[in-house]
Amino acid sequence: MLKVNIENISLKNGGSYRLLLNNINFDLPERKIYTILGKNGAGKSTLIKALTGLLNKNLFSIKGKVLFEGKDILSLNENELLQIRLNNIRYVFQDAANSFDPLKTFDYYFNNSSAPKEQIDELLKYFLLPPYDEITKLYPYEISGGMAQQLSFILAFIANPKLIILDEPTSGIDYTIANLLLIKLKEFVSSGKNSVLFVTQDIEFAQKISDKISFLHNQTLSSFEEAQQFFNNISEGELIGFKKSYEELK
Fold first, then answer.
1. Structural domain tally of the chain?
2. Model pLDDT for residues 41-82, shown as the tens digit of each residue
3. Which residues fall within 8 angstroms of residue 219, CB to CB, at 6 or more apart?
4. Quick check: 87 and 161 in contact, CB under 8 A?
5. In sequence order, which ranges of the chain are alpha helices (DSSP H)?
6. How many C-beta atoms lie closer than 10 Å to residue 116's C-beta?
7. Residues 209 and 102 in one domain
8. How far is 111 from 107, CA to CA, in rounded Å?
9. DSSP state, 96?
């Protein structure tokens, strides 16, 4: 489904470049959940934004290819990118509240989906949110960051994309909602030829949900390994570092 071969990602600084990431290579097949673990500042968000063409081309330089079903995302024009994001790849931002237009109620977002009201209401109930007729009257600034994340999950699911990419999906939600999300993501990948890629510092969530895990460290990405094998190989010091970093994020 997704084949990533990125030589490097650099930040432009006048006439020079500062290297952020290099040698990022992996394949994400269908029906799999892949996780990238990394501490604060490791470049996780930069990496997954690069995969969907979300990095500002005036500020970042990317060398390499990101093939989604044979098409190189990095070489697509804006129109083609919008179509892929609309129909095939949904990205859930960590700062979900700021990903919504503050001048539009949630009615705008649900009306622009092709999902029936009953399906939306079912997901709202599943994620313990107010019903459709109530939530659609609200503006993004009228809800919490956690609710914004949950609504972003719902908008991703009702689009039924081939790939969902999530940035720190458990950072603004409690344990109950995290478990509901885990179940729904597993249902998503088992229901068709769908896949999930997410970045996190939440080790417990990663252990429960991942088919394979990789570690973003020292500007590069390790090979993806089966979850149990990954945790057998990672050092205790690195695990403690993850947990400390994640608690600071929370």
1. 2
2. 889 999 999 998 899 988 999 999 999 988 999 999 989 988
3. 19, 20, 21, 22, 43
4. yes
5. 44-51, 78-87, 106-111, 117-126, 132-135, 145-159, 175-190, 203-209, 227-233, 236-249
6. 10
7. no
8. 6
9. G
Give me the pLDDT at residue 119, please. Answer: 94
Q: Average the pLDDT over 95-111 and give the result.
A: 92
Same structural domain for residues 83 and 178? yes
> What is the model's pLDDT at position 240?
53
Using only C-alpha atoms, the chain has a radius of gyration, in whole angstroms, of 18
For residues 214-229, average pLDDT: 91
In a shared domain, residues 19 and 83: yes
- Regarding whether 218 and 139 lie in a shared domain, the answer is no
| Residues 65 and 22 reside in one and the same domain | yes
Q: What is the mean pLDDT of residues 7-30?
A: 92
pLDDT of residue 244: 54
> Angle at the Cα of 63 (from 59 to 66), degrees rounded to 5?
105
Cβ-contact 53, 76 below 8 angstroms: yes
Same domain, 83 and 165: yes
Cα 152 from Cα 146, distance rounded (Å)? 10
* Exposure string over 24-59, b if 16+ CB within 10 A, otherwise e: bebebeeebbbbbbbbeebbbbbbbbbbbbbbeeee
